[in-house]
């Protein structure tokens, strides 16, 4: 298997192209709720030995934090090196797990379990053979909290061939990712009014209200399943109605509508540019980038099945581990691209990046379907002090599945605490006014022990 | 880590039939038929989870989401923009309400596929009058169409309960036309619904046969098979590795031009065999008569198309992502020792392959699940094949055979690989190969868990045996039945389904007869709530 020197190329690219602004932003105190939220999800986990780093040689079994400001690019891990220029706006979180994925009884692939659980924090629900999330995902709950009623509530963007969905509007209600950039444009900018909107557009909201009445009239006459669908349809019509009216008077210069693109990197870049433009006009506040498996030719391994020949083999084949290191570095460079794009837009005393929390996670810990060592990179926002590598000990006493048939004595801390922490950053509350927490508060291991998943990651705040 | 294959799990019967909405094909075809001669917008609805059999019309998964509602609004807007008053076929003064009101109500009846109640009609006309006063008749008509196209009566296949608990004639007409035509009922079906005759068995049978003679049935059946056999799953090939076979094709040549030919070959194959040939399942699984293009003839089948080969033009169904709407296919007899049916065409063989080497697992799984109706339990996990590289497998088969050497994988992979290895004579493009990596191909396999079990030498022998299998015929009938009822089957379907399977086998796999029998079955005709 050939080993391309992909990293060195990336390092050069990041040194030349992705430098942060020389004039540092005004130091602001942290603890402020971000205005926006972007999830970026990638597949097949990471090769942990080349993802984690420990520049001070601190003990693995304790909790510690390293200030990234003074670290060199050589001290960064190979997989995360492309993010080095933005180190002061990063929080690298090492020490989480998808323990609840390990315990999930669903008869589904571990990829699918991770996809349903990552943002919902709850167990999988099987519907006619399909593994779906049994609770709404955090992006949608935060959209409920911060989205403007006169704007798009959220956008779910797919790159390449992403999983069907990692976002759920509600229990078993997946939101499929849009993979065509031109359709993303339609959703973001298509209903902007402009100067000479025809009555066919200006009256759309009025049409919608009449249609809505039709749904209201019909729904009660139908059986409960059909009624529920029509009630949901009606609720969504209400949203769209409000948004169409708002978009007609919104002021925003839309970028050019893109063409269909087959190119993985180009598709991501086009979407980043569109999202930035939309967010600059406050057309949307919550977004997800769901990145499908990086194609072999993009990674520098043409003809190779990345999922089976590389990701699955990380523990048994050094060259596969090296390739998956590059794989993660490619995505790290994409995150850097997204950060750079947001950082170019001045906003208040800082930039758009300062007001946007970006969360990079995935459906697995590693390519061999492990759910421990679940990688997480937080970027932007001022919810907590950035510029840190936060290491947590793997002290959850849960015997986890391991690729070689053995069990791991402990796992990282449950990922529900990450979701709870993000929710706290946004001030999200449940219906009783208490701080929101992921629905799964504890998991039960094979010995019947109850393991706590509640609370936040104290080290973040 | 156990693994076993079972008949599909049965869903409990207490749930009512879930409400279905129009699929993208159904929506687009309906627009076409509502406004013939008008250039209608592209209809693209968000992706949908596939149900059992790969079907996209499984109403269990049909949930409204924001992208759906936006797509409905966008399409209704674009459709209204494409319309003018002429589309209503008026022969009177459009500025007078007396002229336009009846035409609008007639249109509404076709859009909602049933007569409007008085209250609905007066609301529609009141809205029209209000808009007409502000913007004139043309815009008022366009806005009325926007309204009609976003109403539940258009978007959903509604079946309001009747006092008797049966489907009313209008709903039955829609169910029939969306099953056999993928579009709205025509005037004759509407007429029978109005007269209350459509529910009679003799009428239904006559109508089903009439509909099968219509071109719309061909497209609909092709669409059913597209979903069942993944015709729209296309390969991502290593163009450098296959440069010689593909004549140095660029990515655009390959993805936009070549793959689109590969994409539609099996649809033409299905249509020709079902409607112009014997019409039997065995033909789909074993015939060497195929409709191919000069490009696939050269790259995949290794044949010259004779100068006098009959040809046909096939119009690409929606959605139209690419510019070329029509393609020409040539009828040829392929080498019967190498090609037998749909699963030896370039489409299946290349879609179920990696960039360089075929995937016996993906090939075997499709045959197992879609032709065998066997659904494997997902294993706890799939461990990496740790020893593969060290053992230096010489061929693709040897590499994949590692699965069956590991005890934890054997249960599933014996069943999958036994169906997948027989395709090893076909590379990742679907071209025949005697050698793999310089070593002779071993394409032997084994059928397990069927009524035609045993070892086979290669894909042709396997497919011919499956073509004569009762269990394969039963599975095919089950799949078409699932598609017809647009939901997973449950125990209340067991009896009617068994009867359909008996009659399909007795008819020697007559596909058109199966479609008619399904239309006549009690669940298709009568159910509202179960």
Question: Beta-strand percentage of chain B?
Answer: 5-15%
What low-confidence regions of chain B span 5 or more consecutive residues with pLDDT below 50?
Answer: 1-5, 7-14
Structural class of chain A: alpha/beta
| Low-confidence parts of chain A | 1-26
Q: Helicity range of the residues of chain A?
A: 25-40%
**How many alpha or pi helices of chain A?**
13
Shape of chain B: globular
Question: Can you describe what's shown?
Answer:
The complex is a heterodimer of chains A (461) and B (530). Chain A is α/β, with parallel strands linked by helices. In chain A, 33% of the residues lie in helices and 17% in strands. Chain B is mainly α and 530 residues long. Chain B is 50% helix and 6% strand. Chain B contains 23 helices and 9 strands. In chain B, the strands form 4 sheets. A 3-stranded antiparallel beta sheet of chain B has the order 2-4-3. A two-stranded antiparallel ribbon of chain B has the order 1-5. In chain B, helix 3 (97-111) runs parallel beside helix 5, helix 4 (118-135) packs across helix 5 (137-150) and helix 20 crosses helix 21 (494-506). The two termini of chain B are 37 Å apart. The interface between A and B is large, with 75 and 75 residues.
């Amino acid at each position: 298997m050939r080993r391309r020197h992909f990293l060195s190329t990336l390092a050069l690219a990041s040194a030349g192209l992705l430098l942060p602004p020389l004039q540092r932003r005004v130091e602001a105190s942290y603890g402020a709720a971000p205005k926006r939220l972007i999830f970026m999800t990638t597949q097949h986990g990471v090769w942990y030995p080349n993802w984690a780093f420990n520049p001070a040689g601190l003990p693995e079994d304790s909790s510690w934090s390293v200030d990234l400001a003074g670290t060199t690019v050589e001290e960064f891990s190979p997989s995360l090196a492309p993010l080095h220029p933005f180190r002061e706006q990063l929080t690298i979180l090492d020490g989480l797990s998808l323990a609840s994925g390990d315990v999930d009884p669903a008869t589904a692939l571990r990829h699918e379990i991770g996809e349903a659980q990552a943002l919902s924090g709850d167990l999988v629900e099987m519907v006619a053979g399909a593994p779906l999330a049994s609770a709404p995902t955090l992006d949608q709950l935060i959209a409920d909290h911060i989205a403007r009623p006169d704007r798009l509530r959220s956008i779910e963007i797919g790159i390449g061939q992403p999983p069907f969905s990692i976002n759920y509007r509600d229990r078993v209600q997946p939101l499929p990712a849009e993979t065509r950039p031109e359709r993303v444009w339609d959703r973001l900018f298509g209903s902007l009014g402009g100067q000479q909107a025809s009555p066919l557009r200006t009256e759309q909201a009025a049409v919608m209200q009449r249609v809505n009445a039709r749904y209201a009239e019909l729904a009660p006459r139908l059986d409960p399943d059909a009624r529920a669908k029509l009630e949901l349809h009606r609720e969504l019509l209400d949203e769209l109605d409000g948004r169409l009216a708002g978009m007609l008077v919104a002021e925003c210069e839309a970028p050019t509508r893109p063409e269909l693109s087959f190119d993985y990197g180009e598709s991501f870049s086009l979407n980043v540019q569109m999202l930035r433009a939309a967010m600059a006009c406050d057309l949307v506040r919550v977004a997800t980038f769901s990145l499908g498996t990086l194609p072999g030719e993009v990674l520098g391994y043409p003809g190779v099945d990345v999922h089976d020949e590389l990701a699955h083999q990380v523990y048994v084949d050094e060259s596969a581990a090296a390739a998956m290191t590059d794989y993660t570095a490619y995505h790290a460079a994409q995150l850097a691209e997204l950060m750079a794009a947001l950082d170019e837009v001045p906003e208040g005393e800082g930039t758009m990046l300062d007001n946007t929390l970006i969360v990079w996670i995935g459906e697995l810990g590693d390519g061999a379907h492990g759910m421990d060592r679940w990688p997480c990179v937080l970027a932007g926002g001022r919810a907590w002090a950035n510029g840190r590598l936060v290491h947590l000990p793997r002290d959850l006493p849960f015997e986890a599945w391991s690729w070689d048939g053995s069990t791991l004595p402990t796992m990282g801390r449950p990922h529900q605490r990450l979701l709870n922490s993000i929710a706290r950053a946004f001030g999200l509350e449940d219906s009783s006014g208490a701080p929101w927490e992921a629905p799964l508060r504890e998991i039960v291991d094979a010995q019947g022990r109850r393991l706590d998943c509640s609370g936040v990651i104290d080290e973040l705040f | 880590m156990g693994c076993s294959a079972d008949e599909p799990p049965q869903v409990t019967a207490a749930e009512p039939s879930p409400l279905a909405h129009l699929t993208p094909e159904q929506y687009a075809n309906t627009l076409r038929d509502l406004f013939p001669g008008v250039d209608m917008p592209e209809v693209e609805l968000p992706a949908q989870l596939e149900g059992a059999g790969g079907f996209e019309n499984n109403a269990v998964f049909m949930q409204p989401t924001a992208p759906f509602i936006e797509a409905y609004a966008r399409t209704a807007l674009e459709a209204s923009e494409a319309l003018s008053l002429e589309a209503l076929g008026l022969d009177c003064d459009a500025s007078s309400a007396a002229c336009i009101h009846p035409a609008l109500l007639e249109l509404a009846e076709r859009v909602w596929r049933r007569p409007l109640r008085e209250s609905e009609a007066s609301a529609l006309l009141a809205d029209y009058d209000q808009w007409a006063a502000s913007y004139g008749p043309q815009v008022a008509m366009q806005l009325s169409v926007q309204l009609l196209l976003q109403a539940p009566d258009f978007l959903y296949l509604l079946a309001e309960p009747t006092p008797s608990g049966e489907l009313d004639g209008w709903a039955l007409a829609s169910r029939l036309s969306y099953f056999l035509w993928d579009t709205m009922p025509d005037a004759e079906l509407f007429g029978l619904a109005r007269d209350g005759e459509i529910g009679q068995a003799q009428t239904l049978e006559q109508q089903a046969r009439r509909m099968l003679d219509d071109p719309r049935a061909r497209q609909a059946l092709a669409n059913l098979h597209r979903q069942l056999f993944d015709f729209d799953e296309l390969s991502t090939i290593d163009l450098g590795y296959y440069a010689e076979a593909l004549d140095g094709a660029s990515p655009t040549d390959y993805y936009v031009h070549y793959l689109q030919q590969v994409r539609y070959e099996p649809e033409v194959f299905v249509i020709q065999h079902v409607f112009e040939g014997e019409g039997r399942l065995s033909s789909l699984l074993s015939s060497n008569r195929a409709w191919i293009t000069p490009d696939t003839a050269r790259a995949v089948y290794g044949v010259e198309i004779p100068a006098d080969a009959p040809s046909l033009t096939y119009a690409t169904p929606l959605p139209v992502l690419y510019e070329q709407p029509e393609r020409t296919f040539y009828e040829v007899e392929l080498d019967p020792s190498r090609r037998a049916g749909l699963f030896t065409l370039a489409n299946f063989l290349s879609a179920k392959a990696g960039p360089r080497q075929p995937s016996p697992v993906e090939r075997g799984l499709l045959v197992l699940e879609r032709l065998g109706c066997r659904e494997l339990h997902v294993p706890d996990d799939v461990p990496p094949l740790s020893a593969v590289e060290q053992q230096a497998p010489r061929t693709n088969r040897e590499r994949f055979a590692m699965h069956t050497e590991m005890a934890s994988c054997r249960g599933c992979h014996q069943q999958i690989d036994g169906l997948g290895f027989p395709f090893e004579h076909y590379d990742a493009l679907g071209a025949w190969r005697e050698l793999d990596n310089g070593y002779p191909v071993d394409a032997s396999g084994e059928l397990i868990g069927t009524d035609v079990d045993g070892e086979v030498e290669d894909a042709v022998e396997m497919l011919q045996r499956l073509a004569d299998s009762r269990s394969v015929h039963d599975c095919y009938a089950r799949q078409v039945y699932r598609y017809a009822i647009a939901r997973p089957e449950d125990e209340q379907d067991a009896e009617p389904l068994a009867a359909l399977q008996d009659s399909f086998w007795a008819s020697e796999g007559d596909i058109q007869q199966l479609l008619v029998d399904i239309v006549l079955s009690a669940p298709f005709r009568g159910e509202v709530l179960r």
